[in-house]
Write a structure and sequence with these properties.
This protein is α+β, with helices and mostly antiparallel strands and 506 residues long. It is built from 17 helices and ten strands. Among the domains are: 58 residues, no CATH class; 106 residues, no CATH class; 162 residues, Nucleotidyltransferase, domain 5, CATH 3.30.420.10. Strands 3, 4, 5, 6, 7 and 8 form a six-stranded mixed sheet that branches. Helix 5 packs across helix 16. The longest helix has 29 residues. The N and C termini lie far apart (73 Å).
Length: 506
Amino acid sequence: MPSGVHFSVDMKKLIFRVIKFVENEKTGPSIPLYNCNARLVAMLGISEGALLKLKKELTAAQNAEEQEYRPPRLRSQSKVRPVSKLKRRSSSLGLSSASIVVPEPEPTKKRSGRVPIKLSEQADSEIRFQFHALLAENIYPNTDNLLERLHQLHNDFPVQSKTTLRRHLHRIGFSYKSTTKVKIPLDNICFVAQRAKFFRKMDELRDANALVFFHDESWINSGTEKTSIWVDNDGKGRIKKNEGKGNSFNLILELKTKCDVLGSRIAISAMMNIDGIHLPTVDIFTCSKDHSVNSEYFLKWIETAAFRLRTDNGPQRRICIVIDNAPWHCELVDSCKPVKRSWKKDKIKQWLNNRSIHFDPLWSKAELLEIASVNRPMKRYKVNEIAMEFNVEIVRLPVRHCCLNPIELCWANLKEYVRKGNTRFQLTDVRELAAQFIASYDGDTATKVIKRTQEIENKFKIADRHMEENIEPMLDDEESSEESDVDQVMMNRTLIFNTEFSFQVD
């Protein structure tokens, strides 16, 4: 290499690693010469996947250079240049005199702008809840107040700007509406209606002293670990070892011979009430990263659970299971499945005839689909039908309202418990830790989280009532998607309700 070149620290580490690897092979190769990939992995200290990507990039760069500098092809190929006999040289001389030409690597592509923020379902639910909590406290839920509240309660909340918060509000169903004084975000009417139906049903069940169970599924990976740890000056303190960059060839072979399948995890299906988690119906099973729960599996579970609940509580006790709207919870019975656009005209006509719906035989497929959509039957779910065989009711949570399910708090505590005790990172240990936590989840803890969820319900009720009685009557017909500067100045102030529910500005 030319003199006067300054190497970076990372480049020096790489050169030192190559030097040590070559010097260690003076007496013979430790890795067979024919195993090029394994030798390169051990020499460079990168993962096998990273090596394959680099080789692919090198091949593409070489092909591009060959296409660019390929000499023009001669018309006549009759003349063949004589091959001169080269003088035999030693391998060391050949290597030292030969020049290795490598193509110029492409620079790493840098993404312009900020990395997009993706929020979890729990974060979306928290935004929705805090929006209505501000309303319940008689404070306008504008972006300033909402963002301030989120940061007060969650120091690590990922949304940092009002623009980003507005975008996520639009994404989860909110829209801006103008009142006579200010512009405020409004929740989607379908979510408000779903909440009203759910709250009315829950009040009815509580008044009837029904036995209410809250169900949900959760997943835990074998590699789950504590998110924050203490480390020493050398960076040591993490129990889990990195299985990516920096592994030697022997470690790669060891990882490939592990018994656990890469990407495997455990799934937990359970339900809880004021007495704790219902242990007889807890289902913990191993699944892959891509496959977890399907409709057939869940229907078998709900049948077993409903039978057990009815057997344990007698024929007269009113029992209800609250579930969310996961796809495997929402499979319709065959008679209620709607017409699909992929169907042929004959199948659509048969669907209409089976329901005695009149149509013209000369109609096009689009017209048949339109009349089928108008006459779509009321939804009936297989889950509800199976549960009703044992006189067990099914109540569904409003869409995107996981904060109304108290078992979500149980799952958060469960995962924290597993992170603390998971030191060997094996599925058997994770399963055992999960079982220990579930068995120790008593009625006192369950009662507290259910009470916490009821407090959230009450805040939603107050907020929805204020919105219906005081804010919506003042809405203008035109809809606005952005807040003007004047309105933004007004919204920065805190607005309160007086005893007559009229708005006043401090």
